[in-house]
Structure formats: structure tokens, C-alpha cells
Amino acid sequence: MEEHSDNEQLSSLAFTKRISRLLLVCLTGVTELKAGDQALLDKIRELSNLLVTVLDGKTDSPPVLGAELEQIFDELVVQKYLIEKEREAAKQVFIAFAQTIHEMSRSSGEFDESLSEQIAVIEAAESMSDIFSAKDIVLEQTKKIQTETHAMREELEESKKATSDLTQLLEQVESKAMIDPLTQVFNRGTYNMEIGKMVKRFNRYKEPAALIMIDIDHFKKFNDDYGHKAGDAILTLVATVIKEAVRESDLVFRYGGEEFVALLNKIELENAQRVAEKVRAEIESHHLTNKSAVLKVTASLGFSCFKEGDSETDVFERADKALYQGKQNGRNRVEYVL
User: Fold this and answer.
1) 68, 110, 258, 317: which one is catalytic?
2) Cα 210 from Cα 277, distance rounded (Å)
3) Residue 5 above 80 pLDDT?
4) Catalytic-residue membership of 258
């Protein structure tokens, strides 16, 4: 039994020496390759020296050095893992950032191509230095894009102002096209548009409405006796009086010559007659002075309310007929035709 035990110890020692020789060769190679971690090199040298003593048969006790080496290797593995995780996290951040800028810069072919290249560089990066190198280029492109965006914003503001100015100009032109230049009330063309709208509204919603025709009495005589300037002054006066006498929601038009039309919305017969009488009375209460002459102005009015099935001409013809009756009945009157 003792002889058998001695043989086992000799075999174990021989095996240990073989393993030690192999490990010693490996460690020697590692010390030549690994030149960056001094603590690891020091521990490897200690292990090498220990292995030499084992091979010389000077020790057979298990060293503490193995545990220390194991700890160092564990730390290196952890550090490598953390570095790789940090690198991957940084890559993802910079890739996301670069892709965002890339999407924003599609209007510029130059930026688009450059950023595409840098995204590819970051995706293929093996080290943090590669990532940060690409990051610097991306940031440089970002600054260029910011400059370009600022310039585009200024151009946009200028375009907005130009558009606003043009809109105002068009509104002014449109307004002038709708207004009679002498009397500053709506003209005949505008009446033709508005009467159509009012007839459609009435036929659809059945909201009561009325049309008043106003004709200045003896206007031709004023022109013949006092001249066209006096006639223009009378037209302007009458237009102003009509606008002030009707409601704000009503529309006043110079239909032609000395004739005016007022469109009254949402109004019944009785109130329409009241408005027409107010217009007549207000015109009569005003006068003009031409040199030493005092010009008394009156007008005849005819009106009619909208009826179901009316066309644009139906209601106008009834009001015109009422106006003619007023002229026949002595002028300076209000008449209506149902």
C-alpha cells in the first residue's frame, strides 16, 4: 500500500511539472505580448517564478498567487465588458443624433451625402476614438445646417411679409373695383353679385329681406342750372345720408346716374317701410349751398319685400314700379309694391 501511494505522488508530481512547463511557456509569451497592464505583468512574473521553483522541486504548496491572478483576470473581463457596453451605447447615441440631422438635411445634397458617410463610420467603429472622430464631423455638419436653417428662416419671414403686402394690395384693388369712386358706396357690379347671394339666402333660409330704390328728384335740373360739380356734390351727399340712415348690416349701391339701391336683410315689411321713410326724411333735411343759392334736395323711394320663388329681377322690378308710382304721385315719397 505504501509503495502504491508513493507511485501516485510521483505520478502527480510528474504531471504537475509537465503542466507547469506548459504554463510557463504560455506566460512567457503573454509577458511579451501584453505590455499595457503592469499589475498583470507583475503577477504573471510572480507566477512564472513560482512555476520555476515547482519545476526545481523546491515547493509543493498551493500558492495564494493563483487567486490573485484570477481576480485580476476577472477585473480585466469586467473592464472589457464595460468598455464594450460604453462603446455600443455611445454608438447608438451618435447614430441616432446623426440620423436625425440626416433627415433634417435632406434639402441639401452636400450635407445628405456627408452625414450618410459618417453614420456608416460610427456603425463600423471598433473604438471610442473612431466614434468621437466621426462625432466631430457630425457636429461640424450640424453647425452648417443651423446656419443654413437660420438663412432659410429669414427668407421665409421675408416671403411671409411679401405675401402679406401682396394680399393687402389685392384687397385694396378688389375694394376699389367694388366701390363707386365718386360716392364711395358699392357700385353696380357689386350689386349684381350681392342681389344674387341675397335671393339664394332668402329661398334657402326664408329670412325676410327687402330692396329699396332711391332716385334723386329733379337731378337733371341741378346739373343744368348749377353744373356737374354741384351735381357730383349732391350725389355724394345723398350717398352719405343713405349709408347713415340704414342699418350697419344693410348694403348701399350706386345703381347708375342718380339712382341708388339699398338691400335690407332680415327685415319685415313694416320695418322696411320705416327705414325707407327715414332715408327720405334725412335726405330732405339736408341742403347744399352753391355760391348764393341754397339747393334743397329730395328723393323718391320705392321698395318691395322678397317673396318665395323670386328671381334677381323680380324683386327689383317691383321696387322700380313702386318708385315710378312715387314719381307719379308728386315725388319726395315712399311707395311699395307687394
Assistant:
1) 258
2) 14
3) no
4) yes
